[in-house]
Amino acid sequence: MTLVRRQDPLALTHLTDQALRVRGVEAASTYDTEMLVQLTRAYMTSASLKGARTSSRTLDAYSLAVRDFVPWARDHGVQLLRPGRRDGSRYVAQLQTRPNQAKGRRGTLSPATVAQYIAGARAMYRALRWAGATEAQPFEDAHVPPDPTPGIVRNPPYMQEIDAVLLCCDDRLAALLLLCAHAGLRVSEALDVTLADLEGGRLTVRGKGGKVRRVPLGRRVRAALSALTPLSPDGALFAWKYHQATYRMRKAFRQAGHGEAWRGFHAARKHSGTRLYRATRDFTRVGLFLGHSSVDTTRRYVAVQDDDVAGEVEDF
């Protein structure tokens, strides 16, 4: 049998069909969590819709989900290769009633977290089918109730916090925040910016799925980037991983007196979308700026005032 190093999940793609099937059957039969994580990552990066363009954050999220589901299945008598027709729903119900143990959180897991765990478990079963280990689909009929609270309400944009936090950032951290809050970049896009991506007042951004867009930069963003010196021969302006950037930004929020307001980098991107919409009143233009393929997605990034049409209906 072809040997596969555990730290190299892509090596699974080089196995013969028979060897891959054996590896999948063995991992599922013995509840080998880490091998099932490898199998899922190999499938996602070689056979899923996005393939090698699948983001590292998605891979990490699905890996976490597999590491949660497999021990649960083992402890609750679920045969991974021959699950019962209600086993998927049982897991969903357990997640919905599980206490949220995250720091500063109360109650049960959020609907978004539950959906993420189920997405990862479904990906694991797609990987097992890809490997030829089983045809089971225990989550096919498992219903994951959506969160009725709109995302813009659950995680609204930062507004007045941005300028206060910028005062507590060094030059590089301030540039990162401005790229998200004023240029509308995802934090992963911002961390990948290099000097070569800058041309005049525009920035070439390589986004999700390999999409490329040209983003106009305001004067504050241009000034912040011009103050930075590249950190490597390839012109990289940031050397942080996501968790390192998060640690630094969370610290800056605390220093600015807005520690409780920290909601991740996505709320900074929503700041950009909300401000641009208020200036243009055009979801299409905002969507192009943010790199969205659908205006419906853009609407979830814009905080619209409750009385936004008060003037228009006054004389109805």
TrEMBL record:
Gene Ontology MF term list: DNA binding
Segments forming domain Core-binding (CB): 44-129
Gene3D superfamilies: 1.10.150.130, Intergrase catalytic core
Pfam families xref list: Phage_int_SAM_1 (PF02899), Phage_integrase (PF00589)
Biological process, per Gene Ontology: DNA integration; DNA recombination
Keyword Flavoprotein: no
Chain ranges of the Tyr recombinase domain: 152-315
Superkingdom assignment: Bacteria
Keyword set, alphabetical order: DNA integration, DNA recombination, DNA-binding, Plasmid
Protein name listed in UniProt: Tyrosine-type recombinase/integrase
Taxonomic source organism: Deinococcus sonorensis KR-87
